[in-house]
Structure formats: C-alpha cells, structure tokens
Design brief:
By secondary structure, this protein is an alpha/beta fold. A 7-stranded parallel beta sheet has the order 5-2-1-7-9-10-11. The chain has a 7-stranded mixed beta sheet with strand order 27-26-25-31-32-34-33, sandwiched between helices. Strands 19-18-17-20-21-22 form a 6-stranded mixed beta sheet. It starts with 12 loop residues before the first strand and ends in a 15-residue tail after the last strand.
Amino acid sequence: MEAPQILTEGLRVLLSWEPHPYQVPPIKFSQNQVNLCTEFSESIKSVDSINISGVTPPEPYDIYEFVQNLGIDTKFDLVVVSISGMKRNLPYNVKNFDCPCVAIVTDTHHGYTSPLGELLTYLSLEEYDYICFPYCRQHMHWFYACGLNNLGWLPLLTMTTFPHHFLQERDDKVIFVCGSPIFHPYRHGIIKLLESFQDFEVCTLDRIKASQVYVKSLISLNCSLNGDLNLRNLEIISAGGFLLTDQISPQSGFNKLLEPGKDCDTYSSKEELVQKTSYYLNNPEVAIRIAKNAYAKFYNLLHPNYRINELYRWIVEGDAQSQFLADFDSRFEISKEFAELLETRVTIYEQVQELHRLQDSISILVEGDCEIIFAIDLVDLCRAKVFVCSQDERKIKTAEQAGVLNQISFTDNIDAVWDVYIFKSINPKVRSRFNIVLDESNQLVYSSLRGFSSLNRLQLKINDNETILISYFHDESAKYVIKEIFDNHCYQVLPFLGDINTIVDIGANVGFATAYFRSCYTKAKIYCFEPDPIAFLLLNDNCRVLGNCVAYPIGLYSDDVTKTIYLGESSVHSSIHQSSLASNAHTIDLKKADSFLLEHGITSIDIMKIDTEGCEIEILRRVMIHNFSIRVIYLEFHSEEDRRLIDQILSPNYLLWSASIIYGHRGSLCYLRRDLVPKIPGIESLQG
C-alpha cells in the first residue's frame, strides 16, 4: 500500500530536533528542509537521507542567532521545534522567524526533573503559534489550564515508516523488540514473566530490522514506558505485525486509534498477558486476521503523513477539525477551573507519575476534605487505582463533567495500607507508604515523594564491556556518600581474601554501597535491607539493574518489632532515632537479624556492611549469636561509646583492619576475621 502525499513538500522548513536521530529519525516535511539536532548528533552528518546542518547546545540557546551563525538564510515558511521533559532542546527567540512556529511536545511521561512543570514555564514564555502532542494526549489538559491555546493532538506524528507486503504465513513466536529495560521496571517484569515461553524472543533492533521481524512473527509485544502512546504501536501494525500491548488510559487516546479485538489486543495485567499470549499462539488465524485489518487501517487512516497534512491544514487553512487534532481529553475545562492550584497539582502529579513508573501498580487515596481535582488529575496513570474518601453530590458532578467518574472509586472503607495518601490533617487517618499533605487552601505543604521529581543517574562501569546507571535522589548528602564510597573507597577492597560469593548490605539506602560491591565483586550474590519506603523504591529498581541482588523492604534489628522511622530531608539521614535531620514519622517493620537471615537460607556471609544510623550495636549483637563465618564487616558508628562497644563485641574474633574517624564520634570501621589476617611481619600476634 502507498503512503499519502504530504502537503508540506513545497515549504521551506526549519526543524530543530531533540531525539537521537537514529532512535527517532527527524520528520521529513520537505526536500527543502534545514535540520538541527542535539549533541546526540555530534558525529552524524545525515540519517535516512536527511542531512543535519547543525548541532545545538544542551542549554537554552537563541535559535535565530544560531541559524544565522551557520550562514543559513533565516527566511522559512515553517519552523518546527521538538521538545520534551528531558529538556535537551529549549531554544528561544523562535518568533524572530517571520513564519508560523510549531512546538512538538514529546516525552512528558518521564524525564526525572519536573518533565511537565518546566515545559509549562518554557511554553508560557516562548510564543509558539501551535503546540502539538504525538505521545501524551493525557497531558494536554495541563497546558490548557496554564492558559496555552492552539493545542492539537497529532498521534505519533514523529513516526518513520518502513513498508512491507503483508505476510499470511509467519513464525509461531512472540517477539518483543525494545531498548534496554533499565528504566522500565514493569517492562522488565514482563520479560521475566514470558521467558518461560519457548517461542519468546527479546531483542534490540533498529527500526528497519524491527519492521522485518514484526511481519514474520505471529505476536509482536509492546509495553508503554509510563502510560504513553509510544511509537511501537503503529510501527508494528504498519509492518503487518499483530500488536499485543498494555491497556493504557482512555485519556491517552489509544482506543481512538485502535480497537482491541479488531485492530490489536491489549492486556491489563501480567496474568492477562500470559493468558492472551497462550490464546493467540494456539489460535494463529485470529492474530493474523486482526493484523491484516490493522494493516489496512494504518494506510487508510493512521499513516503519519495524514498527521503532517492535518498540521498543514491547521496552519495554512485554519482547519482544526480533523479526526484527531481537536479531539481533546474531557478533563480540559475542569482542569482550567482549578488553575489556581496548578503548581501544586503538577508537582503532585509528577511525583506520583514517577512512582507509577517504578511499580507494577499503585493505590491512591484522596481524603474527603481535599478537592476532587487531585483524584481527577491522577486517573490517566494506567496502573493506578484512585479512591476518594466519602462522596458528595458536588464531587460526583465534577467527576462526571471531567468524564472520569468510572475511573474513581468513592469509599468509606479506608482500613488498608495505601501507596499514596493525599490529605490535609497533620494526623493521617490511614497507613500509607507515601504521604502528601495539603494546607486548608489545598496548597502543598509536604510530600514524602518530593525526591522523585529530582532523580539523578550515576554511571558505573562494571567491566570493560558493561556500564550501568544507578538512580539516586539529587541532594548534597547523596553527593557526599558517592564521594566517600566511589572516590575515597570507604569500603576498602581486601585483595588477599580471594573469591567473594555472598554480601549482606544492611541499611542499603538507595544502593550506593551495593553498586560499589557489584563493581568490585561481579559474581557475588548481594542481599540488601532497607526499611525507608522512599529509599527502598530506588534500591529495588537499582538491584534489578545491578543483577543478582535481592532487596528486602525491612530493617534488621535485635527483635521482630514495629518501630517509627523518622524520615530526613535526605534518605541517607532516615533513622529510628529522631534528630534535627530526621523528623517526619513513618511506621516500619524490623526483623530479628539472625533469624531472618537463617530463614532465608543466608548461612555463610563473606562481607557484611551495616550502616543504620544508630542501630549498629543491636544488629551486631544478634548477628554474632550465630556463626555466619563473616569474613569482613564494614560498620558505621555514631558515638565514641558505640565505637567502644563495637570493638568489645568483635575483638575476640575480629581485628580492626582499617578505620576512618571523623572528630572522634563518627566514622567507618573495617573488621577482618582474625584467621584471615595475612602474614605480615609485626602483626603475627594479632592473627587468629
């Protein structure tokens, strides 16, 4: 089937492109097109027959001046700029070009540092004539509430097609073409789940090779990153593949493009994915019939050239009445009614959205005295269940007007442990893992999820061929810990120990020490313990990336007890002891150290690290009751008395091998089992 002709062919176009051009090739509007790409493109002169004229800086830049300095004529018929929550392309002075200017807003469903809020600010300052959204229709209401107009939904406008003839005969296999699942915990879980299928394959391919695989495979799997309408949906059907993808929210617009059961199929849980995969493997004729229907629909309606032509008519002819362009989320007007709460709403949404990326599912309870808009905002997170405590006529009417009444559950039964609890009182009525506190005016006072809007990545080299990224909260305390562990080597490697097979990290926080141990001991099994629910989320994700690590959301202690943990401004300060650095109370479970280790088959330990902000003595006493044959123990101490007690407990069998003391009352210690002390002249008497 042939692609429709594009109407922009005769225009002189300037395109400023943010994505890596090999991952998402620049849109080809015209043969007479100037392409600017970001620093990704430093060594790339062209891609898919598109020449790259300049490489833009990662910081904000004057685009008019930049084009002038390249010696390029600044007279254009159309200027198009792609921007995203990653904020790698934020040009200014776009209006200096005497022509229509279009912003294409791509990834706002991740980005780690205010992916929505900062773009709202940017677009409020830069006067684009048109703003369109190819991936995240569910986020358009934020921009409308901010006062921006001329918004349009152009689904998957950025797609590049690689046509194939439809194949009736194909391999009975399930193919999942995806990038690294490092940033995709849910996707990673799906891969692990389907590995038991004999005919399941996971691979990373460029888009041309991927299209060849889709048309030859019975089932082509997709999974959104975070409830977004991603390119793979149409890439699969355009090649003639059968699409099996995750069910995302009505606000995403997915069901306006593709009808499950007719053009594709969807799964709403891992269990349903397994069931449907088995069904289509046993009924290949059904999958092929659906794929053929979707293939025809793509060329008749969904080809990206149709979206380019809709953009052209919108700009040149003022026609915004296409099938998709003005098909807005029903929350638009309600969102604007609550514009005075926009900053608080966006902040909460960004934090919960990032939590949603990290977990298979989340439960959210909005207290009855909070505005219903906080629930309405969150319904587009496809694996979230949103509850409102108690109902009244006004709330029901507002939810109906927003078109989300069937996505919100009103409940009086709040006797559960919620993932997220949004409330006003300083005394929460329910147990929750993460609290978001509002004042009487519904403005944000406190959120235990606040760190999720400012995540950073630490690049860690495991070996010559492997580099991984570790997530952490961006604050000064984290910088200090990174320096101590990776630069100052506070967990000194003892090369004479030989093979290290088992490591226990007690008080693992987000996993800095775990990551360091992994880089030093690539084959070791690492067990991590962290009771702080905020730190544990990142720890669990980092353990998945590091591999051969197990993370437990508990603390080890002298007894099986429930304690109050005091959460600090930084997660590294959280402790069961209240202090000026840790004052926000949260209930956690602690387990008797020796019993828990033995129950989980951890009987022999090579390295144990204990950093628990003041609980080291209690843990150490329990651990020493049983003979775990621990070879090296790394500990933190927080008073001179603790240091003396630690030495008293360990000195019969362990030698203080090295230490770093800070002002006498704080420091780190390394104890080596005496029978392992090397034969060094002068220390013979210290050996076991």
